[in-house]
Amino acid sequence: MSFHPLFCHPGCQAPPGLAVSVRADTTSAGDLRLAYHLQGGAQLRLPPPVLPGPADDLWQHTCCEAFVAGGAGTGYREFNFSPSGAWAVYAFRAYRERQPDWRAEVAPQIRCELAANDVLLEAVIPRLLLPAAPARLGLSVVLETVRGEKTYWALAHVAAQPDFHLAASFTLPLP
Q: Which residues contact 137 (CB under 8 A, 6 or more apart)?
């Protein structure tokens, strides 16, 4: 599988030298495997490492995201992965309409490698966390620079303001 480039939202000013791409594939067990490559990492503010576990508001800082929609209906799952090791999983019935009683029964696996100018974050989402009949992916990243500025990257931007929850931006067929 090749890497898919993510594009900075046109309303944001991307710092020179930053580039983001993601590779997505599935394992023989039906798990979804994602690899986010952030180039220009020296410009990024990365959250400090924490014990792996669930946490909210990860998008307030550098965070990799995936939105997985099923083939029918308007429901989807949101996955957030922080370079710190923290993660979040949310289930939605429809656009931004959370299922309050839904909880992740297992944890995604996250591994983050830092190089001089690159960040590689790999995440494996167990099949159990995916919606029934997963069909489409929306891949996105929030990047926070060392100056505290945020930029929003995605496969597709379909609104004047960054909004990764819009189903029209779930453009990648599930591998």
A: 24, 66, 67, 68, 69, 155, 170, 171, 172, 173, 174
